[in-house]
Amino acid sequence: MIRIEDYAGVVGRGMVEELFLLARHLRGKTIQNINSTSVGGGVAEILTRMIPLLKQIGVDARWDVIKGNERFFVVTKKFHNALHGVPVEISDDEFDLFLDVNRQNAADMNFGDMVFVHDPQPIGLIEKRGIVGGQWVWRCHIDFSHPDRKVWEFLEGYVTRYDAAVFSAPAFARPLPINQVLISPSIDPLSEKNRDLPEKSVSEVFERFGIDRSRPVVSQISRFDYLKDPVGVIKAYRIARRRVDCQLVLAGGGATDDPEGPAIMEQVQTEAAKDKDIHVVFLPPSSDFEINALQRGSTVVLQKSLREGFGLTVAEALWKGRPVIASAVGGIPLQIAHKYSGILTHSIEGTAHWIKQLINEPAYARKLGENGREHIKNNFLITRHIKDYLLLFLSTLRKGEIVYLDQ
Predict the structure, then answer these.
(1) For 314-344, how does the pLDDT look when each residue is reduced to its tens digit (9 = 90+)?
(2) Domains in the chain: ranges and CATH
(3) Could you count the other beta carbons within 10 Å of the beta carbon of residue 210?
(4) How far apart are CA 313 and CA 227, in angstroms?
């Protein structure tokens, strides 16, 4: 198991000592995280890495997952798409189902001193606050810049009952009567997905999937989701192929709370079926090693999202020193300074243009990757994320108290 002390070699001993210092002031308090899935997606991945580290520094951190049937997750996927600005129809019965499932879960749960609710799926648990007390924070990981009005108005009635709301980027903040906090998510540099790999391991993964490393490889490694625009990636690749030789890798999986994933993957496989240079790879949740190798071995990494909460796949690729071309949506512009630490695009044609440019200019592509890695090191590693959360917990649980952090 990775120890918190191991991060000193990446971020310095001072940062690790600061985490222990902050954690001391949370002794005796229970921090309860609640989300909708333990497998698949960025939230589950962050919590999987973060909860053990919080416990190592002395925080009583817990993680619960709400239960729901297939119909519930169909409804919450509609919520997800609507909050990203996609037109959807949600009936009164579906809103009622959403609340019923939240109430059933609330009846079965024991709540901590701090209840940290992630994303819309469990937001209705706040109804239990009047009975159980405690401090409640809602953490939104998705793009809230253009939400569907009806869905947002429904959710707003619950958000405003929390002590604070946490967003990943300034553009996602909403006019709310409660405190709002900006905390960007992070990657774990020592995890199986992000640790250094020998070149031999990278080559073995490419050979296993039948990908020729002697030719340029363009990849998008992300969940099979309409909002990740995998079909748009294929179109950009085909335009670029007119001018430069390359292959395309579309690799990823799904999440247990996303019922649309299989249909999107089937659509991608149909679109790619006639091109032997397009490799569509399904990766189960245990594929961190393979993701690491595919990102490290790619000539160029894409993240052509239509909407994006933050897009940690960008941070992952930048950490590995890869040149990244990504859509200027959600939290991606926080990770990429255009033409310095990566490339931001707004269209299929723009993405194709930069694929061609970076393959033809390897020295520039390499410099983008170097700058990107340094930017991620300074801003988007898990130790910074833990520090931000500890400060949030302290400020919420001990508001009105004076906390001397040097004691």
Answers:
(1) 999 999 999 999 999 989 999 999 999 999 9
(2) 4-186+381-397 (3.40.50.2000), 199-379 (3.40.50.2000)
(3) 9
(4) 14
User: Is residue 253 within 8 Å of 284, Cβ to Cβ?
Assistant: yes
| Per-residue pLDDT reduced to its tens digit, 146-203 | 889 999 999 999 999 999 999 998 888 888 999 999 999 999 999 999 999 999 999 9
Tens digits of per-residue pLDDT, 222-250? 988 888 999 999 999 999 999 999 999 99
Report which secondary-structure segment, H or E, holds 221: strand 217-221
Cβ pair 233, 248 in contact under 8 A = yes
Rounded distance, CA 183 to CA 298, Å? 30
Question: Phi, psi (5° rounding) for residue 150?
Answer: -65, -45
C-alpha to C-alpha distance for 139 and 35, rounded to whole angstroms: 10
Cα 6 from Cα 191, distance rounded (Å): 11
**Encoding tokens for residue 218?**
């363009």
b/e map 120-159, b = 16+ CB within 10 Å: bbbbbbbebbeeeebbbbbbbbbbbbebbeebbebbeebb
